[in-house]
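Section handout 9: paired folding examples.
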Amino acid sequence: MKRKLTDTKRQAILNAAEEVMSKKGLIGASIAEIARKAKIADSVIYHYFKGKEDLLFSIPGTRVTEILSLLNNQLQGILDPVSKLGKMVWFHLDYNDTHLDYARLLLLECRSNKAFYEHNAYRSIRKYSGILLSILEDAIDKGFVRSNINIRIVRDMIFGLLDWEILNRVASEKVTETVSDFEDIMALILPMISSKPSQMKRRDKSSRLLESAEIVFAERGYTQATIVEIAKHAGVGEGTVYEYFRNKEDLLFAISEHRFNEHLDTFGEIFEIKNALRKLRRMVRYHFSYWLKHRHFLRIFSLHISLNNRFYRSEAFRVFEKYTAVYDPILDEGKSIGVFRSNVNNRVFKDLLFGSFSHLALRWLILEGNAKTDKTQEIDEVVLLLSLAVASDEAAKEYGVFR
């Protein structure tokens, strides 16, 4: 009975803190106000929490236990991993729509605080993201998702998109409910990751072999490298290599041919890019390169600006909107000529783009610290995935963005 009373009192404190802190923030809320809301003495809070920051971080930590239970129940009986992915996205949007105080507090107070990522509560959040990873792994195993996809990057992109959707609800107030964007969200996610082996299968396998050979030759040296190693790296049998290349030297020279042709294809549009898909890809690359050159600002924007509720009421946000608006004419042009799918929602795509970047920046700068992540490779992957998210099948074939 004593334990039950203790749990009830602790939950009452958390409920009061969520309500107060979601409105006033960590700095504006006081222990005294939270105690009055919970109908307890101030000192009782310190029996359960180390201080105001620990109390703040404990709110999502406790919420996630409920969320995990609800989500697992929602996913029961769904065998198709693509349907599971859709259900998890829908659940995430719906839960945050119906728990706005929690959504506001998690994004604008917890996620903007570097100390949150060292708290036990964040470990609980990681369990939630682990469900998405397991769904993607299952989708790969069952052939619904491309086997060569980086599921960690896909996870960052999906949660980044969902975060920016929530920010549009609780901060910029561009939408009145995020769940109404569900179909537009899935219309970007599914083309981005789906496996369609019947389209350009032969050329795709050839490209994989060239990429694998390039890596193996660079690391092992041409003389020491073997066809067996290259085939293993590409995930194919040794005999498959000879379906595309006569011998190791032929493969070596094919790499050079491939790379120089790749450069030649871009020379004609260096000063004037006429195709909407290439314009979009160039813009995304520019976005990433610019921000990585200004790492201090990147850190400040990721933690203290984009997750600050007051930013969305400032003149700085008006300028940011002008910055994001440069993508609209590119997307509109692409849709008008059939390069992009007509059902692409510009705002949701920009949420995907900027949300992806925010999550990658968070991992690069905070979670991984000094870890040597190949940022160039991850940016290449994001550019490809964003292209697949919007490109029509015809454009994907013509411009080398294969599903």
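Moving on to protein 2 of 2.
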Amino acid sequence: MSYRMHVGALAASITFALSLAAPLDAAAQARPAGVQAQPAGGRIHSVRRLNTRYRFTPPVRTVDALKTTMSRANIQRDLGTLLDQAGLSSIRAEVIRNLTEGTVTPTTIAPGTTVQWMAERLRGRPAVMRPARWDGRAPFRAHQFVIDDRINTYTFVVPEDCGNLTLVTLEPSREAARLAAEAARAEAARAEAARAEAARAEAARAEAARLEAAKAAEAAKAAEAARAAEAARAAEAARAAEAAKAAEAARQAEAARLAQEAKDARMRPFVAGYFGKQQRQYDATDPADLGIDSNPVNRYGDPLIGVKFGVAFKMSDKWSFNPAIGYSGNLEENERSSALLDAEVAYNFGKAYLGSGITVWDYFHKDITTLGWLGTGGFPIWKNDTKKHQMDLSFEWRQFFDRGSDPDVNYMFWAGVRYMFK
């Protein structure tokens, strides 16, 4: 016998002796599943290494590798054998679909995790090892997918290192539980709606009875009121004659008062104070004499404080003509302070007013004097009914016609209070 044959026989004898002496857990360390496909007495197979000679497929460390491997005809045949052994033939098509289409998510299995079963190969044939526990030193990475057939929910993983299809958990169908809960909620809602409808019907009957009783009581009350009214009619006739005389006297006095008020309201002087800003473009005649050398057309935004005096001439119950003069003090460049003349026509709504007209702005500086459109508005914030004085919150806008092609930089606005005298 040759030297090689002696060595081979000796190695085989040693391996056989160790296999008889080693416990189940030690045998499992040499492969990713136990030696027995179905251990007796519910013993748990301890799996400590993956990618051994008992692996179900070569490593499938990417989704593309998983799809390619599981699309092979022989692998799909062996998957069917595994699922038949596990009693899961009914979900064979769904398992293969998830694996071949790659509808999986990445996950890890921690040491100490017990699974329902794990696939392996014994003498090249597919087998199911159940139950099993991962006792490796570190978590292993795997592809995970879940199947719910409305009876059970199955959570599967495929380790990246060996392709051993593994059923991690088997639990009652989550989807069936969700649908049952939805059906229960719908039934409860229908019952609640029925109770609410019954309550509404009962309330309607009670309300009808109450209205009928109230109607009868109202009829009795009306009859009693009619008798009382008839008894009082005679006395009322006497009082009416006296009241008519007094009313006529009061009417004449009110007419005289209103006539005097109308006369007083035809001309009402007013004074107003404002705060706001102006936006102007100036050319070489700019009174502040700024920027002429570098830019002959400048624009400036300056804060203003102003005062205005005028008279409101009443043209009708709603319309008034309000000419005014005023002065606008420039808080940034005193040389740009302006005098103004306004011709405003206002419409009075009772609680507010709106006006429009023409303004002459900056008429003390003849080279930059400009006409402009005047828009006004306001509403009362205080009145003295005895003296007929009134204070308004007032707003004014002026759009200057000079350099009208640039309206966004040739305007001013301010707001303040206007005090109207009697």
